[in-house]
Specification:
The protein is of the alpha/beta class. It has ten helices and seven strands. It is 51% helix and 12% strand. The chain has a seven-stranded parallel sheet, sandwiched between helices. The longest helix is centred in the middle third of the chain and has 29 residues.
């Protein structure tokens, strides 16, 4: 079923479409009748997306020129309009906070935060000019409930939640018709663990860390076949929320996805800080998104 009204979004730019949530949402929305612009960082992934029938483009969230060129390419194809943006491209860097170098943190934030905000700020003038728009941020349960050995990723998602809440308030203050929503998944089937393992090997010196024993258990979970956490859902669970955020006349500010997100959202409201720490430490065994 295609969106029926002119105010409903028809064109959408999605980042991080090489696999998992981004790919599922791109294919699902295209099947639903949207004009999807599916972006990926690497050229071989762009080709793969094109071979799947998607309108694919290269967009590296760590590269300002790549972001600008990606936006220009989309706007040239649409005649200068864009109805929606789904910020999804991100990765997780496991590791204890005391083992995170400045370079490691910079790399995490360049992709997960700075690239998102730069892209959003390039799209906002287009949406202001056309008088409508939807922006959807794919955050995480770790955007409001921090777990051990995910400090860089926790911080990047907390930052996105802060930016998004502030932007929403500013849009309301200026009576903007642009809607912005956060999606907060728990564990979703994707390449997240594989990419997290690669980042860990790149940035963390496990052999000289006082957390070596904990890292060994974490690595076992990251390399485990199949779901690494209970209540893991397929990426279609996120697609369902994206569709609501795009098509509802009153999109939600936040969309919980998976049982852990609902559970920790509730517990954070009712437990003391110390009790919440105990719950999160117990749950944070490693490799969970």
């Amino acid at each position: 079923m295609k969106p029926e009204t002119k105010s409903s979004p028809n064109s959408i730019l999605i980042t991080g479409c090489s696999s998992g949530i981004g790919l599922c949402v791109a294919l699902g929305l295209q099947k639903r009748g949207y004009r999807v612009f599916a972006s990926a960082r690497h050229k071989d992934d762009v080709k793969k997306l094109s071979d799947m029938g998607l309108n694919a483009l290269q967009l590296d969230l760590q590269d300002s020129l790549s972001i600008s060129n990606g936006v220009k390419s989309v706007l040239q194809q649409t005649g200068g309009t864009l109805d929606a943006l789904f910020n999804n491209g991100a990765y997780g860097l496991p590791g204890a906070v005391e083992d995170l170098s400045r370079d490691a943190l910079r790399d995490q934030f360049e992709t997960n935060v700075f690239g998102w905000m730069e892209l959003t700020n390039q799209i906002l003038p287009v949406m202001h000019q056309q008088g409508h728009g939807r922006i959807i941020q794919n955050s995480s349960v770790l955007g409001f409930a921090a777990m051990p050995y995910r400090g860089a990723y926790n911080a990047s998602k907390f930052a996105i939640e802060g930016f998004t809440d502030t932007l929403r308030q500013e849009l309301k203050l200026t009576n903007s018709p642009i809607h912005i929503s956060l999606i907060e998944p728990g564990p979703i089937i994707s390449d997240f663990r594989k990419n997290a393992m690669a980042a860990f090997e790149r940035f963390i010196d496990m052999e000289n860390s006082r957390h070596k024993t904990q890292y060994q258990a974490m690595i076992a979970r990251l390399k485990k076949e199949g779901p690494a956490a209970p209540f893991t859902l397929p990426p279609k669970a996120v697609l369902k929320r994206v569709i609501h955020a795009l098509e509802s006349p009153r999109p939600k500010i936040r969309y919980y996805v998976t049982t852990p997100t609902y559970v920790f959202g509730f517990l954070k409201r009712v437990l003391s800080f110390n009790m919440m720490d105990k719950m999160l430490i117990a749950a944070g065994g490693g490799g969970r998104r």
